[in-house]
Amino acid sequence: METVLVTGGAGFIGSHLCERLVKVGYNVVNLDNFNDFYDPTIKYSNIQSVINDSHYKLVKGDIRDTNTLRKIFDNYKIGKIVHLAALAGVRGSIEKPCQYADVDIIGTVNLLNFAAKHRVDKFIFASSSSVYGNSPNIPFKEDDPLLLQVSPYAASKRSAELFCGTYSSLYNIPMVILRFFTVYGPRQRPEMAISLYTRLIDEGMEVPVYGDGTSKRDYTYIDDILDGIMAALNIKCKYEIFNLGNGHPVQLNEMLGIIEQKLGKKAMRKYLPMQLGDVDITCADISKSRDMLSYYPKVSLEEGIERYVKWYKNNKQG
Known about the structure:
The chain is an alpha/beta fold. 42% of the residues lie in helices and 19% in strands. Strand 2, helix 2 and strand 3 form a beta-alpha-beta unit.
């Protein structure tokens, strides 16, 4: 039975992925440092369904710590790596750019060194739609020229992509870069838009809307993202980049309207200037993912928000 190392496996996407991997028969080692970017108790809650499974091992540690990585690779025969661990979020990166570079670039290179030394069978790097910046090419294609990222977070993700390509070439590591487009669903980080807006509307609090509400995002439900990751784990390749999005960008105002409908409550909207690092639109061309990964996102934004609101209502007391 193959062992997969998942970094950041107690977070939103990572915890869902660990569950999926265990369910289909993999051994999973989850490396997570439980930092205080948001309340660590949320992460502990995320992993409760697998924490006692014999095929799941939790390692508390940091991807920048070579001693921790050495122990993992000495104690477990790691076949594949899904590298999700990162400092996430555009706005935080503007406030602490050096910290983002340290975690998202140096941490990734640290992990790549161990992947090369131990000759892993596959390295999957979780990148972001933010690497496209304000590209005029809509929808975004994997081979578009990436001329300018508009936040340190985006720049750190793009830099890590380049290191992944270099290590793939140098050490023949089968490499997949997955560019995620605005992932949402149960366990979504509390500061992300759908999670934040749902809570604020439900509690009757003011909802900050940056810009005039016409900016668009390619919202992608967590189950569809997991399908893409699982396909990437099994594809035979040397080095590939894939967009994992929905392919149907939706305006912020429309997204808010869907949350209002599913909650049965109206939002008290407060319109504010656009924030530094924000882009006008994200939109994934998923034709390559369809062709090579058989990736067909199934969950519409309306259905996905309905699922999220149901989960939120069942869990909000916690």
